[in-house]
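Worked Example 4.2. Consider the chain below.
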Amino acid sequence: MTWLVPLPVVIPLAGAGLAVALGRRSQLQRTVSVLSLTAVLAASLTMLFTVDNGPLVVQVGDWPAPIGISLVADRLSALMLVISSAVTLCVLLFALAQDLALGDPDSPVAIFHPTYLVLTAGVAISFLAGDLFNLYVGFEVLLAASYVLITLGGTRARIRAGTIYVIMAIASSTIFLLAVALTYSATGTVNMAQLAGRLAEIDPGIRLTLQMLLLVAFAVKAAIFPLSAWLPDSYPTAPAPVTAVFAGLLTKVGIYAMLRIQTLLFGEGPADTILMWAALATMLVGILGAVAQSDLKRLLSFTLVSHIGLMVFGIALSSEAGLAGAIFYVLHHITVQTSLFLVAGLIERREGTTSLNRLGGLARSAPLLAALFLIPAFNLSGIPPLSGFLGKLGLLQAGVQASTPLAYVLVGGSLLTSLLTLYVFVKAWNKAFWQPAVEPTSATRLPAGMIGTASALVVLGFVLTLAAGPLFDYATEAARDLHARTPYIEAILGAVR
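Applying the procedure from the previous section yields the following structure tokens:
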């Protein structure tokens, strides 16, 4: 079944090429995009059940590792592919319903579909790359597409936000490329399976330097404090579907990369303490920033930053329980955060604003919209028995099991973050949904397709709660594989390192 592995990359790239060829034939472009992402989801689901028998590896061009390019699907990458393809498909359907891809006939709308498909391919490359250089390539492919999407429409605010985003992305990519070059210089390889053995043989100081360079590059991409200030200024100005897919997915590509290199290449070490403090600062600074916001999209952007800290907490613990909690929380957060941004897009479409000072009375005038906001908001806050509560419980238990003073501090920080998240959403609910509007506004009718796709994503978040037991078991198996390292290494190189 190794033929499945390249499909999440090949299908969207082929679809992007076809979408470009179709030009402004919007209906055909839509069909190509939807069929492409549906096929990617089907291939990812098939892989998810296939990798139980061991990682699937494709040597591109039939060049053997470590000389050639290895694409590897194990439990972690297959799980990430499934949730990312499901989310990107839902967001695409939302965008089509909103007519984002059509827009003004005079705007360069033909680029939306191919760019979105290239973004999807870049995410898949990142999840499947078996070497550092092609992980870098995956990041660059998705970032190149994201530069276009974040400035779609060409308004002054979007160009400004896009400029900030591009500067930070280029800075992190430069650091990443420098780290790849230095790693090759120190070890003679960038193949991650081979690096797992060779990095242990080099000088500890050099190894720590390489680790910190890679972590800094990924920290920018994942928006980890103090490298997170760019996110709240960049995301809220983009079109709602673009903001949703960026917030839900792109930061998690950075988290995935941290999970992979920390477990496969470096293991436990002094960097874990630095990550613990970074996780604590990310949680608290992010949620305190959310408390101070009066705009719903900026509020959600700050909560996004704060909950990245919870995932970093699990990675920093370096235990199977911590890694399993982080993996499960990533799945939960991708789904719930994306659905919240889509609901914010619905509110903006209906009311013409996301300012909490101008909204009001939506619980009475739009009860379905109120329910679509409340369910993922409670989920992100960690209200039992939703998946957010279960993910946080797994992380807290892992922190208590670590039994170190710093771990206990992080447990306390996680609890405080959850309480403040609940406070933030109660405040937002009170202003936007419960209290009467300060200024009556004329509501715009919402397309059924937008409501339907946002509802589907909210339901998917609830399904994670219903399937939490099997999902957590799968995340635990994925964490066990990450800890063991041997299945991944031997799948690429065989018994010879």
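The longest helix spans residues 156-187. The chain has one domain: 2-493. Compare this with Example 4.1 before moving on.
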